[in-house]
Amino acid sequence: MDVIHRMKELIVEVERMQDHVLLVGHRVVARVLLAYFMGLNRNDVAHVDIPLGRLYVLEPVCAYPIDILFLILLCREKSEMTNY
To answer: What one-character DSSP code corresponds to residue 64?
Structure first.
């Protein structure tokens, strides 16, 4: 789990953020971040399912880590979108 070790500083910075932040990264990065903010055990990180075409929204509802609003938004395929 070298990725977990390398992401510690990023996680600390994300926790300190006072405003919105957009993180774009590889699926393994998303897996580690989601597992951390969901309070999962380090051994469970590898089993977090990260399908393609999803936008994950984590928003604190109360005091971390007690309540986190967790949304998964589906991205539509380009062929499904209509022009307005």
So the answer is: T
